[in-house]
Amino acid sequence: MIQTHQLSYAYGRHPVLHELNLQVPSASIFGFLGPNGSGKTTTIRLLMGLIHSPPETVHLFDQSIRTNRLSILNRVGSLIESPSLYNHLSGRDNLEIIRRARQVDRLQIDQVLAMVQLTKDAHRNVSEYSLGMRQRLGIAIALLGNPDLLILDEPTNGLDPAGIRQIRELLVALSHQHGKTIFVSSHLLGEMEKIATHLAILNQGHLLFQGTMTQLRALQLPILSIDTNNNQVARQLLLDAQFRLLDAVSDQLQVAIRDRVQIASINQLLMDQGLAVYGLQTNQQTLEELFLTLTHAHA
Ligand SMILES: Nc1ncnc2c1ncn2[C@@H]1O[C@H](COP(=O)(O)OP(=O)(O)OP(=O)(O)O)[C@@H](O)[C@H]1O
């Protein structure tokens, strides 16, 4: 559905994206993850042709955005940041304005309202809507014209947990029941891991990972928590021996390890230096920790 080839971009002299090769399969919910400022919005603007990409670097539906922008955008619905809405009009009237401008069949208004579960509130002024309702109305607008692909930039930004959950459920329904391909950006892995079939992780304009959720999970390392009679000395010894220490969540030390043999080596190293080892315990790294390790390692 989306392919980028060695896509790089700079604002003036400030490079923001470095040789991105994105591949978004049909029918996927593709989570596009990265910390603030990593280049997600810039990528989305390039995908939509809102800023110019170099020739032959961006293709949607196997067509170049540079040469086929209009026919591509007829098949794409998008929500970039918060939707522009007329607050003094109802949700239905906001949809009606866009429907006319885009010459879409009137019947679609009820359909998209039902899809985003705003039928009951469609007559109310948008000024009375919660942030979550506004985002859902923005998605309803994106759905006018029955697009094959939805491109959503941080649609859960600023929402409370209930609002986030509603958007999550909506995206799953749009994918499963309506067959949409969904490209959605977020800076929270926890939010994406529940729904994404595929993920890409961007940091400082570099793609650090791209693949299925299963492939990402395979990268989760075992973490060894270590407690000794002098964790400060132990920390320095481990650093000197090139072990990878993680940001401490407690006063214990945490090290990413590859295998069980390393546990024995660490134990030996600490004992050889006269430290008393009180505890060595392994746990699987959470996905959030993996995300932080990947993004910090390249910061
Ligand atoms: N119009 C612009 N002119 C110059 N620099 C820009 C412009 N827009 C964004 N940038 C810079 O490009 C980099 C990437 O920004 P971008 O908005 O694409 O990141 P992001 O991942 O979407 O971040 P966020 O989650 O904060 O929106 C940042 O360093 C930002 O300051």
UniProtKB/TrEMBL annotation:
* Entry keywords, A to Z: ATP-binding, Nucleotide-binding, Transport
What GO terms are given for molecular function?
A: ATP binding; ATP hydrolysis activity
Which SMART domains does this UniProt record tie to the protein?
AAA
Q: What residue stretches are annotated with the ABC transporter domain?
A: 2-229
Highest taxon, organism lineage: Bacteria
Family stated for the protein in its record: Belongs to the ABC transporter superfamily.
PANTHER family recorded for this chain? ABC TRANSPORTER, ATP-BINDING PROTEIN
Q: What is this protein called?
A: ATP-binding cassette domain-containing protein
Task: Look up and give the organism this protein is from.
Answer: Spirosoma endbachense
